[in-house]
Amino acid sequence: KDIYKLTPGTILTLSSSTRDRQSPVPFWSAKEVAERGVGNPLENTDAEAVEHLDALLREAVRLRMVADVPLGAFLSGGIDSSTVVALMQAQSHRPVKTFSIGFHEAQYNEAEHAKAIAQHLGTDHVELYVTPEEALQVIPKLSSLYDEPFADSSQIPTFLVSQLARQHVTVSLSGDGGDELFAGYGRYSWGLNLWRGMGWMPRGARRATAQALQAVSPQVWEQCFRTMGPVIPARLKRPNPGEKVHVLAKLLASDNSENLYYKLMSHWGEQSSLVLDSSEPPTVLNDHTQCANLPNYLQRMMYLDLMSYLPDDILTKVDRASMAVSLEARVPLLDHRVVEFAWRVPLSMKVRNGQSKWLLRQVLYKYVPKELIERPKMGFGVPIDSWLRGPLQEWAETLLDERRLQDEGFFNPAPIRQKWLEHLSGRRSWHYDLWSVLMFQAWLDENARTSTGNRQGSLVS
């Protein structure tokens, strides 16, 4: 009670002379930077913009390499981490130490790409292929590592790569921030295309269409797509099409473009039906008064991520995971000068011919051949969906027990149990939704044990 987080970009001064709670004072405003940058765009040529960004990033990386302890970098093989490592190696007299985590499941493994880039740059590369058993051992630690309910399952490989790096270095550079600054997420193009395709429809028509699509189960949609398979163009074929039709239906019911993006970023639909006696507090995601005044929908999506997803998910994930093993993580792409420059970069230099992060890619191509970089974007994740049906089933069932949920009084058990049973049956994949609830339950469990231990310690003393 009465404990608050200090919001990003603010400073709080405490004085022993007053008992009144002081208010944080902003020292840097992302909103002002975004609005000012979009209002004063770069007028450079492509070549000039590439050189300008290269110089800014070199300096940002150089400053983060200042250390009197061993230093290295996380290397996933993606554009952002590869750029950071390339600029580190270009300014180092010895091979930079780089670290990657690999998985034997091909759809989750980027280690081979990272290894190829490390070999090209000449880094001192260390990789660790993680077994499911090793990854599963991390899960019981998560609630104590993060100190609050935190439900991005990539927290597991992030902890593992931090643990690996700490065996060799004390400081590690990370490539976080590139997607938010240079339009790297696939959901940006998806959100743009969706709103262009549906925004012209009256709201009532969109909602009626959504209800019609949801009236048909995902399984029936799957059968329809299988039947129509021979006549569907290959570019339109997607895995789990029935699931995607229901996701599309949820998005169709959006009131406006910002509400569409809010739904794109949400796991559970109606949160009030899940959390008992709840109301969602105003945030930049649902309160238009907190948004920056930006003319383009893509810019607004990037701003929403800069203000919410980046500090509350990405940076929290890396900071807690690294500090859990006494590793300092530094993020050069979020140097304030890089951020301010990125908001001046025209959208035509961020997305070009359907390719995201165009300008950042041009910088990277100066150091790494294009063929080592150009491949579909992968997330940094683990196969939580299959683990919940396998080795994690008993753990999850204990936390999602219907009587337990009722007694605790936070959640309505009905929608949770429905999604859990559907997930176990294989009819639907609800691992993202369920992971959010499971991480809250695990944190609650850890909190209860800690409180009990403290009370017992007090009695003993």
Can you lay out the helices and strands and say which pair or pack?
Blueprint: E1 10-11, E2 25-26, H1 30-39, H2 46-64, E3 71-74, H3 79-90, E4 97-103, H4 111-121, E5 124-130, H5 132-136, H6 142-146, H7 155-166, E6 171-173, H8 178-182, H9 186-198, H10 203-214, H11 218-228, H12 241-252, H13 257-264, H14 271-274, H15 297-323, E7 328-330, H16 336-344, H17 347-350, H18 358-365, H19 384-389, H20 393-399, H21 402-408, H22 413-425, H23 431-460
Parallel strand pairs: 3-4, 3-6, 4-5, 6-7
Antiparallel strand pairs: 1-2
Helix pairs in contact: 1-16, 2-18, 3-18, 7-15, 9-15, 10-12, 11-12, 22-23
In short:
The protein is α/β, with parallel strands linked by helices. It has 23 helices and 7 strands. The protein is globular.
Question: Which key features would you list for this structure?
Answer:
461 residues, alpha/beta, 5-stranded parallel β-sheet, two-stranded antiparallel sheet, globular
What does this structure look like?
With 461 residues, the chain is α/β, with parallel strands linked by helices. Helix content is 54%, strand content 6%. It has helices at residues 30-39, 46-64, 79-90, 111-121, 132-136, 142-146, 155-166, 178-182, 186-198, 203-214, 218-228, 241-252, 257-264, 271-274, 297-323, 336-344, 347-350, 358-365, 384-389, 393-399, 402-408, 413-425, 431-460; strands at residues 10-11, 25-26, 71-74, 97-103, 124-130, 171-173, 328-330. A 5-stranded parallel sheet has the order 5-4-3-6-7, sandwiched between helices. Strands 1-2 form a two-stranded antiparallel ribbon. Helix 3 packs parallel to helix 18, helix 10 (203-214) runs antiparallel to helix 12 (241-252) and helix 22 packs across helix 23. The chain is globular. The model has no long low-confidence stretch (mean pLDDT 90).
